[in-house]
Design the sequence.
């Protein structure tokens, strides 16, 4: 059964036979290597420049949030921490409602995640696996939800929730955030499921799984990183959403509703402190989840 | 290799599964125990929604005042932006499911809510007769009807904040406490020239700034003696020409300034006009460097605008007795004085101001007293109801057109005057101070 | 044997036809309940009014002094900003693929703006561009006089400020979608093209970008729809001096207490966004409908 591998061909005789000795080899042309190094250096410079563009503003708002009031009024401002003070941040964090609203925001974020996945993932699967009439129309229908300005979306819902007596609750905000998050959830889960070859599912069914069993045992584990990526988008969207949360809650506000609505009326140092306080949880969240951000199109192979 | 892949896959998968379990149970628990961001809600709490005292420090100060005013009453004070707050109350009343007990807002906010959303409090005002509300304020609370719909609890006006450095360029013979508009213009021109061409004057022309109150309550009465009835008169054209001249010595960055105290404390400008509560932080660090003076006088007098804040009871709200108790607490003299001390809003009841006010507030109260003695009172619109916002926009559009975009003054006033007339006729609002009384809807002149 | 094989096949054929619709049903019901009602309400509001009906609302909307400016500014942002963002995001994605040292850190910093809310982003850039801000401070250290970047008198610097702020805030979304798409791309094709002598630009145009088409399509549609909703950043930076369409919605609703015209403006935004999305879908359609395609 085994085939003997063919014998390797004999190496050809080198053109310059050792008999013609002492003829020097032409100098190695270093130009391509130099050019490659310069290109690498150029790429590194470009990357650093872009990193500065993306990162310096965050550094600056951190600086502003931790500067004293006197420093904020000074001009020219120092670009390094000259007059550091934690007073503004401390007052801000101790002001009424910041901690409970933080908890509410976390609850709403996680609940939105779950609701939008429960409702959106089946739809994503349908788009990925089946070519049916109305597929494009359905995706367009979902996108309309993000195209309507939030204020026009929230006011009628407030009236509806009041009548259903779920107004001013985590549930109310969750439902609206799920509406806003559904388009991205469906789009991303659809792409994730597309990346899992249908053959694997069919293989599972050949070996005795039901359709759902094949999904659960084969597709789901492979798509977990991509689903995690979709969760990041959803959580960040829900975390940062201000207006609907402000309209739909009274006593059980989320952090943006509690803080950001009063920020434009606060003295300038509070605006920076508040802005920075809103950015920090997102920074931490992305730090933890960054590995999953690029997995939307399926498990990383390379 | 496959083993390694499997172990890493399992550990990541189990971590995510754990996270999913936590994620599922957390909201279920949450449904049982939501974190309230206000005071403990439930029986016995008065829910007070407000458009006033929104900055974080002001809100906390107000909560302290409420607690000290009446320890037996638990009040849940929730300040917010005008539009979402008003929309919430409207939605609640329309759905017959009212959870808000009381609303603290400006006269304009309460007028937007209107008699349909507020309870009639005429009897409550009667009980509080000895408090000494002014007749003008009580007229405002009637919202154009014959019954009172809210109780006035705070009032304020607008003054000029002056950094003493600017006094160097004051024209000779001018008294800073009794300026005319022409003197103000000459002063600011001198200041700008001395400052290398950079203006030293600022106005709150930002999106949330109160510049329209300057136009309505200061410019128009001082130059024309009226507001609606003299809207497009020859005196009005003079007023707008003056405004253009004044704007040429105003810092252009004013179009993004909502609160004058910010550029004043930063030293970007030296003199600014704004609401007393939006100026109070400017002298906070160095009160000795600052003066607060009444707004200037024009050809027809020293016009000034009095802004009124009041508390109304939301129609159909539960526990109205408790809400009435809250209102009675708010108009007690000692509570009114706490409000002056901490929030720079002045009393609506008869109360002598103590001498130990914080320096910034004392500066302001001096200016306010000087304003009120011999000034020409102007009130915000009475009876315009939901059209109040569009009425204000007429003045904002005139400013944008005439002052910012150099449009023809008479033409703009004529066009905007038509819009204004339509609004007034729709609301059937009769004229209000500074215009003379009228029998039917106010006529634009 | 044959009989029992036929029956399950017929059942599963029916089941297979109904399966996609059954999977879609929860989301459709959810959206109809929670989104359909507001849309109906908005249409109702837009076609009624205190004076006339739809014609009066339309007239009010168009006659508002800032309306046409807001249309122009929104289109400017969409037409000028989005191509620049895509070029930048493609460049960043290609850079990440080069496996430079430190790319993990670069990727983290480049994706941070994704998690920053509109309002916070506006505040961040305001602290930079305001007259007393960090940019003028930095220029001051070099002896340059402060520039009034955000003054209404300098329309071009105002636009530049809004442009930079939106570029900073929104490029990460496009970057992440593109990078994820690139992950699935085998490098074989590009390497083959290189072997056959294609230059960098030829490879980019004929191999890399076409392979990225699905992710580019998703990114374009999402980003454009979100661009039409842009508002908070411009408002934080310029107040009312750089009006945008969604800003008009807020003006009518919150500032002027007129939900009818506000709904009319909202429906205009909705309509324009949908037209653009349809346009993208048609322009970027591949002959085979499945994403990714079989090879």
Sequence:
């Amino acid at each position: 059964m085994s085939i003997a591998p063919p014998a390797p061909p004999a190496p050809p005789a080198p053109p310059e036979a050792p008999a013609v000795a002492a003829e020097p080899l032409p100098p190695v042309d270093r130009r391509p290597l130099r050019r490659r190094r310069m290109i690498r250096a150029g790429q590194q410079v470009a990357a650093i420049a872009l990193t500065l563009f993306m990162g310096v503003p965050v550094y600056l708002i951190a600086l502003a949030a931790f500067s004293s009031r006197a420093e904020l009024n000074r001009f020219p401002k120092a670009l390094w921490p000259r007059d550091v003070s934690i007073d503004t941040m401390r007052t801000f964090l101790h002001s009424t409602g910041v901690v409970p609203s933080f908890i509410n925001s976390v609850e709403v974020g996680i609940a939105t995640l779950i609701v939008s996945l429960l409702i959106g993932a089946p739809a994503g699967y349908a788009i990925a696996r089946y070519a049916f009439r109305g597929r494009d129309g359905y995706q367009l229908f979902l996108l309309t939800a993000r195209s309507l300005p939030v204020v026009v979306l929230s006011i009628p819902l407030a009236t509806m929730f009041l009548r259903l007596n779920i107004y001013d609750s985590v549930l109310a905000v969750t439902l609206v955030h799920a509406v806003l998050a559904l388009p991205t959830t469906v789009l991303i889960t659809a792409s994730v499921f597309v990346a899992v070859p249908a053959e694997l599912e069919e293989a599972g069914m050949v070996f005795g799984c039901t359709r759902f069993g094949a999904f659960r045992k084969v597709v789901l584990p492979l798509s977990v990183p991509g689903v995690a990526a979709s969760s990041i988008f959803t959580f960040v969207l829900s975390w940062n959403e201000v207006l609907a949360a402000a309209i739909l809650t009274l006593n059980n506000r989320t952090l943006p509703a509690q803080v950001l609505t009063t920020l434009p009326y606060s003295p300038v140092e509070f605006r920076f402190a508040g802005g920075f306080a809103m950015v920090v949880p997102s920074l931490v969240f992305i730090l933890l989840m960054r590995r999953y951000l690029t997995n939307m199109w399926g498990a990383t192979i390379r | 290799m496959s083993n390694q892949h499997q172990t890493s896959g399992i550990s990541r998968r189990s971590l995510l599964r754990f996270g999913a379990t936590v994620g599922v149970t957390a909201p279920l628990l949450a449904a049982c125990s939501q974190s309230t961001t206000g005071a403990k809600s439930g029986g016995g709490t008065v829910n007070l929604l407000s458009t006033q005292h929104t900055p974080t420090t002001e809100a906390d100060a107000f909560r302290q005042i409420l607690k000290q005013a009446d320890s037996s009453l638990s009040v849940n004070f929730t300040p917010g932006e005008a539009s979402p707050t008003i929309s919430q109350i409207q939605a609640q009343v329309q759905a017959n499911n009212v959870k808000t007990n009381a609303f603290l807002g400006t006269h304009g906010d309460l007028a937007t809510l209107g008699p349909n959303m507020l309870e009639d409090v005429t009897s409550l005002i009667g009980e509080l007769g000895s408090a000494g509300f002014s007749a003008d304020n009580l007229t405002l609370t009637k919202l154009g009807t014959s019954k009172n719909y809210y109780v006035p609890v705070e009032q304020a006006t607008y003054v000029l904040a002056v950094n003493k450095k600017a006094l160097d360029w004051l024209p000779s013979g001018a008294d800073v406490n009794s300026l005319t508009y022409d003197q103000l213009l000459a002063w600011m021109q001198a200041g700008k020239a001395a400052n290398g061409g950079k203006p030293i004057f600022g106005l709150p022309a930002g999106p949330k700034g109160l510049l329209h109150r300057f136009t309505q309550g200061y410019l128009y009465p001082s130059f024309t003696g009226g507001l609606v009835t003299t809207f497009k008169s020859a005196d009005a054209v003079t007023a707008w020409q003056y405004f253009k001249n004044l704007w040429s010595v105003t810092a252009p960055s004013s179009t993004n300034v909502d609160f004058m105290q910010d550029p004043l404390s930063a030293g970007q400008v030296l003199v600014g006009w704004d609401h007393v509560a939006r100026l109070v932080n400017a002298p906070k660090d160095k009160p000795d460097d600052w003066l607060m003076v009444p707004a200037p006088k024009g050809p027809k007098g020293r016009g000034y605008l009095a802004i009124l804040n009041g508390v109304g009871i939301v129609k159909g709200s539960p526990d109205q007795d408790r809400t009435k108790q809250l209102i009675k607490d708010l108009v007690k003299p000692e509570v009114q004085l706490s409000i002056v001390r901490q929030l720079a809003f002045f009393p609506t009841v008869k109360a002598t101001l103590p001498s130990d006010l914080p320096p910034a507030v004392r500066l302001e109260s001096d200016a306010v007293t000087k304003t009120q003695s011999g000034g020409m009172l102007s009130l915000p619109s009475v009876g315009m109801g939901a059209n109040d916002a569009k009425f204000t926009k007429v003045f904002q559009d005139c400013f944008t057109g005439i002052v910012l975009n150099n449009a023809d003054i008479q033409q703009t006033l004529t066009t905007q005057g038509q819009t204004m007339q339509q609004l007034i006729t729709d609301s059937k609002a009769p004229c209000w101070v500074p215009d003379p009384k009228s029998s039917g809807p106010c006529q634009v002149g | 044997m044959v009989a029992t094989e036929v029956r399950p096949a017929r059942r599963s054929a029916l089941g297979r036809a109904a399966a996609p619709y059954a999977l879609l049903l929860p989301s459709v019901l959810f959206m109809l309940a929670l989104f359909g009602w507001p849309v109906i309400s908005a249409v109702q509001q837009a076609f009624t009014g205190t004076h006339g009906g739809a014609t009066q609302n339309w007239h009010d909307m168009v006659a508002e002094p800032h309306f046409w400016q807001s249309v122009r500014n929104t289109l400017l942002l969409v037409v000028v900003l989005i191509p620049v963002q895509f070029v930048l995001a493609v460049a960043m994605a290609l850079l990440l693929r080069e496996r430079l040292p430190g790319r993990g850190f670069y990727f983290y910093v480049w994706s941070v703006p994704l998690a920053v809310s509109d309002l916070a982003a506006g505040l961040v850039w305001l602290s930079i561009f305001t007259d007393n801000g960090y940019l003028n401070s930095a220029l001051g250290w070099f002896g340059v006089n402060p520039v009034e970047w955000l003054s209404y008198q300098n329309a071009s610097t105002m636009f530049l400020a809004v442009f930079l702020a939106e570029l900073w805030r929104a490029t990460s979304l496009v970057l992440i979608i593109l990078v994820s798409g690139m992950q699935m791309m085998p490098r074989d094709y590009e390497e083959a093209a290189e072997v056959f002598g294609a230059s960098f630009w030829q490879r980019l145009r004929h191999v890399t970008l076409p392979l990225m088409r699905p992710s580019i399509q998703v990114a374009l549609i999402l980003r454009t729809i979100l661009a039409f909703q842009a508002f908070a950043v411009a408002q934080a930076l310029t107040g009312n001096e750089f009006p945008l369409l969604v800003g008009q919605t807020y003006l009518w609703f919150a500032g002027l207490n007129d939900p009818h015209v506000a709904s009319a403006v909202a429906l205009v935004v909705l309509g324009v966004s949908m037209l653009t999305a349809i346009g993208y879908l048609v322009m970027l359609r591949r002959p085979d409908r499945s994403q990714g395609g079989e090879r």
Summary: Residues 1-47 of chain C form one domain. Residues 1-11, 288-295 of chain C have pLDDT under 50 and may be disordered. The two ends of chain C are 36 Å apart (CA to CA). Chain C touches chain A through 96 residues (CB under 8 Å).
